[in-house]
Amino acid sequence: MNSQPPKRASAESPAAPSGDRTLRADARRNREQVLRTAQRLFATEGLGVSLDEIARRAGVGPGTVHRHFPSKEALYLAVATDEFEQLVVEAEELATTDDPAALFTQLSRMIATGAENVTVKSALEAAELDLRTAAPKVAADLTRHVADLLDRAHAAGAVRPDVTVDDVMALVAGAFSAIRHAGAETSPERSARIAQIILDGLRPRS
User: Fold this and answer.
1) Which CATH superfamily, name and number, covers 72-206?
2) Which of 151, 60, 140 shows the shortest CA–CA distance to 100?
3) What is the Cβ-side half-sphere exposure of residue 194, based on CA atoms within 13 angstroms?
4) pLDDT at 6
5) Where is the HTH tetR-type domain (predicted)?
6) Sequence-distant (≥ 6) Cβ neighbours of residue 115 within 8 angstroms
7) pLDDT tens across 18-34, in order?
């Protein structure tokens, strides 16, 4: 007969991973809230808003923000990366549709997102931070999805046959510059009009 007491580890061990998962889930939610708040404040109030103010508006402690984002540059980069990730998700959703013009929907979304956060992109440029280098997988995923949508548009005759994915990505980047030059960052209507003029150049010649 075994006189040793029964082991308790098996009964207690599930609690620790569950607690860790809860902690990680809370941390993810806090980080997400900080990113969304920072994105909104940067777009509406500029880059001068402090990390402590972002924490207050996000409803978290200053330590939470500083723990995730030790500097303004780190937060700029995280905001921009998060935007790219959202665009990847949207591109994946468009890929499940049969719309041959889904390419134009995706490009419009990309330009609108960039226009709303052109100040963040300017800050990254000033800090000599390139999102394609800092987050290469996200940038590559987005380009790949755009290329797939472009192939579909080509097959349907919805886009000029000579357009390449490099052309498309260059035009999106150029749209950001055009919107910034026109001072249209805070005018969705005007930035959308500029984007439409640029994207019309991708359509087949009549």
Assistant:
1) Tetracycline Repressor, domain 2 (1.10.357.10)
2) 151
3) 23
4) 42
5) 28-87
6) 175, 176, 179, 184, 185, 188, 191, 195
7) 445 555 788 888 888 99
**Whole-prediction pTM:** 0.75
Spatial separation of the C-alpha atoms in residues 80 and 56, rounded to whole Å: 21
Two structure tokens written together for 55: 């924490």
CA distances from 70 to 42, 55, 67, 144, 163 (A): 17, 13, 6, 32, 42
Does the structural domain 1-70 have CATH classification 1.10.357.10? yes
> 96-120, pLDDT tens digit by residue?
998 999 999 999 999 888 877 766 7
Residue 170 host element (H or E)? helix 165-181
Say if CB 124 and CB 167 are below 8 A apart: no
Task: Assess contact for 150 and 72: CB atoms under 8 A.
Answer: no
Nearest to 107 by CA among 96, 120, 97, 94: 94
